[in-house]
Write a structure and sequence with these properties.
36% helix; Spore Coat Polysaccharide Biosynthesis Protein SpsA, Chain A; 252 residues; alpha/beta; single chain; 7-stranded mixed β-sheet
């Protein structure tokens, strides 16, 4: 039986009433199209960090879901695919503008992207750090936890915040607004990052800005001081895939 939008908003679009069970934790997530990054991501994370990790199942293969369960907490995120508008349901002028700027490959990722805010609401920690799987963790993440007051992320451009690294407190109202808007306004935004950036312009006092070293966009060149290198974009992913293949990161 199909679940109504109202039911999903009530059950998955709000913070749970129970209190968090831990102080600090890391959250990431993947579906089948991204799960090849999991062993690489975890290997770099574990070198200098030992915070507990929650893996959000955004559509993992059974094999990789088992892999996550063996290495941390794995939580299932409800399927909201039916509420994420397809290309034909988006205003044609808007869809064309997105494709002219970004290309057309993003359409296959949107259903996974808009599950990210839902995953954030499932955290069991007082302070959580979401980190995308294409982020290479090169140092200690402790300073991000220590400075987070509500929601912290990096301003990639004026009025555009990168959602690859987000620190947030349990109960932060901006995260709840983000999740609810993922259901209601996804036809207006290319992805979760664009939606979150719009919400920040509406509620600018609810965030703090992260320093660039905690979400260094690899397209800007090498930075020896970067704590997190973000391999953003298709070209960077191709380079990363080649490096992963050469290093032979162990798969399950």
């Amino acid at each position: 039986m199909q679940i109504s939008l109202a039911t999903l908003l009530d059950t998955h679009g709000s913070w749970p009433k129970q209190k968090p069970i831990g102080a600090k934790g890391v959250l990431t997530g993947a579906d089948r199209t991204q799960e090849w990054l999991l062993p690489w991501w975890r290997e770099h994370y574990r070198q200098l960090n030992d915070f507990p990790v929650i893996f959000a199942n955004l559509g993992l293969s059974p094999r990789m879901k088992e892999w996550c369960q063996e290495r941390g907490t794995c939580i299932d995120i409800p399927s909201i695919d039916v509420f994420i508008q397809d290309k034909e349901d988006v205003d044609p002028l808007q869809a064309n503008a997105w494709e002219c700027y970004y290309g057309d490959r993003f359409w296959s990722y949107r259903k996974s992207w808009f599950k990210k805010p839902l995953a954030c609401l499932k955290t069991t920690y007082e302070t959580t750090l979401w980190i995308d799987l294409d982020c290479e963790i090169c140092g200690s993440l402790s300073p991000i936890f220590e400075t987070c007051r509500s929601v912290s992320l990096y301003p990639e451009q004026p009025r555009l915040y990168n959602s690859g690294v987000i620190a947030f407190k349990y109960g932060a109202s901006l995260i709840e607004k983000w999740a609810q808007s993922a259901f209601l306004k996804n036809h207006l935004y290319r992805g979760d990052q664009d939606l979150l950036s719009w919400l920040i312009t509406e509620h600018p006092n609810e965030i703090d800005e992260l320093h660039a070293i905690y979400n260094w966009l690899i397209t800007r060149g090498d930075n020896p001081h970067a704590i997190v290198n973000h391999w953003i974009g298709e070209a960077a992913k191709n380079v990363l895939a080649h490096q992963i293949q050469l290093r032979n990161y162990m798969l399950p």
